[in-house]
Design brief:
- The protein is an alpha/beta fold and about 290 residues long.
- It has helices at about 5-20, 35-50, 65-70, 75-85, 95-100, 120-125, 130-145, 155-170, 195-220, 225-240, and strands at about 1-5, 25-30, 50-55, 90, 150, 175, 240-250, 265-275, 275-285.
- The strands form two sheets. The protein has a six-stranded parallel β-sheet, sandwiched between helices. A three-stranded antiparallel β-sheet has the order 7-8-9, covered by helices on one side.
- Helix 7 crosses helix 8 (about 155-170) and helix 9 (about 195-220) runs antiparallel to helix 10 (about 225-240).
- Bound molecules: pantoate.
- Pantoate binds near residues 30, 58, 61, 133 and 136.
């Protein structure tokens, strides 16, 4: 596996592979890799033949500077994990290297405005977040020119923003993979590393609440958002977490606000804080019980 510390070397490598007729599977990350990321890399490698990973804690998508500083970083550890799952290239860079035309100056960056799926929930609570995501993801795509790009479904709204971006750009094919969970049900996330043992145990209440809503959907055929929300709110309160939102959306048709009236299809989306750590998760309520 090769490690490039600047995007232009990675771009040269990717161009040469594409010229040689190879297909590139790309996994963009912010590092502090866990089993969820590694599953994406394994799939990229299996489906495309070449797996490329970026590790860049993108300052453009953090609306809270403390959150950016606290975000876990371990490039050497990440490289070791990636080498073990068949990754061909991992690359990183600085803001200046990713946006040389702007000299790293945010005011001179040509920002990419996200589409309508950036409205509501994460987009409302983290102003500018999806604009930062769309801007770096477009630039990462320009570096790699991937055949396929792989994203985890834990960041549900992000997957919609990225799909919209890829539709506008005309590439790449976006593959969304199910979230990986710890045996307790806690969704794997780089931010889990920031949790104390006690917070980690209490964070399980998010998945407990989501699963209870899913049971209501299936067992009691409940379709009213307020009734489905109740077990999520109760579980998160029992876990001593601070709930930011528990809302439902039609998974096939994003709306800024929760649909009014009985739901036909539903994904339940939650954001909650365990101490200083903000966690998000989601669960599809309709569809067969797995
Ligand atoms: O999901 C992430 O880790 C980031 O938002 C991404 C897609 C790598 C962009 O910085």
């Amino acid at each position: 596996m090769q490690l490039f510390r600047d995007p232009s070397s990675a771009a040269d490598w990717c161009r040469a592979e594409l010229r040689a007729g190879e297909r590139l599977g790309f996994v963009p990350t912010m590092g502090a890799l866990h089993e969820g990321h590694l599953a994406l890399v394994r799939r990229a490698k299996a489906e495309c033949g070449r797996a490329v990973v970026s590790v860049f804690v993108n300052p453009l998508q953090f609306n809270d500077p403390k959150d950016f500083e606290r975000y876990p970083r371990d490039l050497d550890g990440d490289a070791r994990l990636l080498a073990g799952v068949g990754c061909d290239v991992v690359f990183t860079g600085t803001l200046e290297q990713f946006f040389p035309e702007a000299g790293g100056d945010r005011a001179r960056i040509a920002w990419r405005e996200p589409g309508a799926s950036a409205l509501g929930l994460e987009g409302a609570l983290r102003p500018g977040h999806f604009r930062g995501v769309a801007t770096i993801v477009e630039r990462l795509f320009e570096v790699v020119r991937p055949t396929r790009a792989y994203f985890g479904a834990k960041d549900f709204q992000q997957t919609l923003v990225v799909r919209e971006l890829a539709r506008e750009l005309g590439y790449p094919e976006i593959v969304v993979c199910p979230p990986l969970r710890e045996p307790s049900g806690l969704a794997r996330s780089s931010r889990n590393e920031l949790l104390s043992a006690d917070e980690r145990a209490r964070a399980v209440s998010i998945h407990r609440g989501l699963s209870a809503a899913r049971e209501l959907w299936h067992d009691a055929r409940e379709r009213a958002p307020a009734k489905l929300r109740a077990p999520i709110v109760a579980a998160i309160a029992a876990g001593g977490l601070e709930l930011e939102y528990a809302e439902f959306r039609d998974p096939d048709r994003w709306t800024e606000r929760e649909p009014v009236g009985p739901l036909e299809r539903a994904v339940a989306l939650v954001a909650a804080r365990a101490g200083a750590v903000r966690l998000i998760d989601n669960l599809r309520l309709d569809g067969p019980l797995g």
